[in-house]
Amino acid sequence: MRLGLRLLFAFFLINGIAAFFVLRVFTAEIKPSVREVMEDMMVDTANILAELVSDDLTAGRLAEGRFAQQVRQYATRPVDAAIWGLSKQTLDFRIYVTDATGRVLFDSEQRAVGEDYSAWRDVARTLRGEYGARATREVSGDDKSGVMYVAAPIYARGSGGQKIAGVLTVAKPVFAVQRFIDRAERKVLMGGLLLLVLSAAVGVAVTLWVVWHVRRLRDYALSVQGPAQGDGASFPPAQPVPEVPNAPGELGDLARAMDRMRARLEGHDYIEEYVRALTHELKSPVAAIRGAGELLQEDLPAADRAQFAAQVVAQSERLQRLIDRLLELSKLEQRHHAEARIPVALADCAHAAIVHTRARAAQRGIALAQTGSGASGSWEAELVTLALTNLIDNAIDFAPAGSTVRVELDGARVAVQDDGPGVPDYALPRLGERFFTTARPGGERSGSGLGLAIVQRVMALHGGHMRVRNTGPGLRVELDFRDVPNNGPVI
């Protein structure tokens, strides 16, 4: 299971369990709380009515007294009250009065007059001087049919003090407040569901946030890892080091730790492959110098001696060029970006590169030409000149004598075109790899493959791109210093 799904599942599980218990607590407390409040109000009502009925009871005129008359009038009063959005149109109190023996003397509903209520909990406990209350279901098993009864003692006061002369009980059906209970439960349920949805949204957002940062770290780790063994090209074109992801907290610490680890381990595989390829490249010139040196120790004709001496010089120059370009490439690969201080004109860089290579071109009978007008930009002049110098040198190696190597400028693009045989199509994608070379027109392999690798690295430092294509005849290498590449194969 992926990290995001695990985080989301864990969050929903914890949130669901918490919401379940919280909602159960709320819904379980609503009904008892409402009934407790109702009982509290009924206690006050019963006691105040007990005081009002006291005189009529002790005088023996309860049935015809003012209290009974007013209670009957209360039962017939019209009422239409809106209580927090709920309509109340009936008066629900039932009031009955018993004497000191528990016999009912008055009932507002005329149902129990003359009956013995002394065994009922509300009457019995009150006659004993205790708090009397009970809840009785009208229909067995139906909690909503319950009626709550709260009693208060009726005192007869005289010279000898006061004594309990009877009991007044106030009764109220539970269904009268059930609407309020149901509404409260609905509100709690809807609020709980809303809280659950909001919590889920927060959980999804947090999960996406964490997964996004983790994926950035993963992409960063993949982008800075070295090439896998056996993937074909030992030295893929160098790319600038990606920026360390800006992540908060421990994720940021992890990103910086990964960057430090990358800095320590960077180049381990590269150096191993680099040394292996370099050793292979050095074998041929060293063997040639050694063979020529051994032959020069013999007595040779002057012509042969001159030939072998020239071979030693040529192979030594080859080694020198190899070492110089390795040093240049090594310095470039230690850098992460170009350092541009002032605007640089591509035309000036192209002119400087032609000046550097003019003598070598003249030795081979090749002309150099510069056409077009280039743009100016925030580029590092020394690196741009170095890249163009390597391209012109490479073109001189392949161009036939008497031909012209052209440096063509077009805005932020500059191309080097020769009239040589080009390169095989299969080799185009590999141009720019270190130590990858193709045969020169004469059949020799005198190059090191580092020239285009240097160009590739210079373009990476500038955020640009190098394109190579056969033009038949000739090879065209185009450098694009813009950030967005055009259509065409990019190396």
TrEMBL record:
Catalytic activity reported: ATP + protein L-histidine = ADP + protein N-phospho-L-histidine
Record-linked Gene3D superfamilies: 1.10.287.130, 6.10.340.10, Histidine kinase-like ATPase, C-terminal domain, PAS domain
Predominant location: membrane
Bilayer topology: Multi-pass membrane protein
GO molecular function, one term: phosphorelay sensor kinase activity
UniProt-listed Enzyme Commission number(s): 2.7.13.3
Name of the protein this chain belongs to: histidine kinase
Organism: Variovorax terrae
Gene (UniProt): creC
